[in-house]
Amino acid sequence: MTALHLFDLDGTLMHGTAAPAEISRQLGLSTEIAALEAEFSARRIGPPDFAVRLHTLWAGLTTEHVRAAFDGAPWLLGIKEVWQEIRERGDYCAVISLSPSFFVELLLEWGAHAAHGSVFPEVPFTRPVDIAGILTPAGKVDVADRLCARFGVSLQDCVAYGDSATDVELFKAVPVSVAVNARPHLAAVATHVYQGFDLREAYRLVQQPRRAGDGS
């Protein structure tokens, strides 16, 4: 049976931080992004408002800032190796994140079959954010549905990896889920829990051995 592995980015593939924080750090805006993230975590603002305010905060953003944030981020170990193994098994791997698409899509370089984030305009910004393209937690499930259609699988063939409340709806939509360095309320709805710094170890929790003669 072919599986589709769906990975969150912030706090999951990236340990203890998020793409907006890493990008803002490159711009010297760590204090400002911390305040904005606190509002989001407290649910005083939702994903669309968060995105609009990010866009304003990042008026001076360049592609060099984005690349430096990506290259310098605290990624879990073994991401490329896990995705290579998934490919070799004939399975699929994708990233679904509320973070900006221009950052999330860089993970295609590491071997993800697909990478979906909130749709921001090109960097440097010359256009406003279209809030219709900003992902929500429910929107993660919609993206998963589209990926299932693309790869010829169903949600029942999916494994989700995440760390926070924005992953709850996706965890409830799939049969297998891994809470990675997660908050307690997400760990409570996951089928597996992982604490650590190596994605290979989290992947091993859900890896199913292939039967003889199935092509492995």
Characterise the protein shown here.
The chain has 216 residues and is an alpha/beta fold. The protein has a domain at 4-16 and 75-204: Rossmann fold. The chain has ten helices and six strands; from the N terminus they run E-H-H-H-H-H-E-H-E-H-E-H-E-H-E-H. The protein has helices at residues 19-26, 30-41, 47-57, 63-72, 79-88, 101-104, 137-151, 168-173, 184-187, 199-204; strands at 4-7, 92-100, 114-118, 158-162, 176-180, 192-194. It has a six-stranded parallel sheet, sandwiched between helices. Helix 1 packs antiparallel against helix 2 and helix 2 (30-41) runs antiparallel to helix 3. The termini are close together. Mean pLDDT is 95; it is low at 210-216.
User: What general outline do the C-alpha atoms trace?
Assistant: globular
- Please identify the structural class as seen in this structure: alpha/beta
- Can you tell me the CATH architecture of the domain at 4-16 and 75-204? 3-Layer(aba) Sandwich
**What is the N-to-C order of secondary-structure elements (H for helix, E for strand)?**
EHHHHHEHEHEHEHEH
Strand order of the largest sheet: 3-2-1-4-5-6
Mean pLDDT, as a whole number?
95
Radius of gyration: 17 Å
Helix segment count?
10
**Can you identify the CATH class of the domain at 4-16 and 75-204?**
Alpha Beta
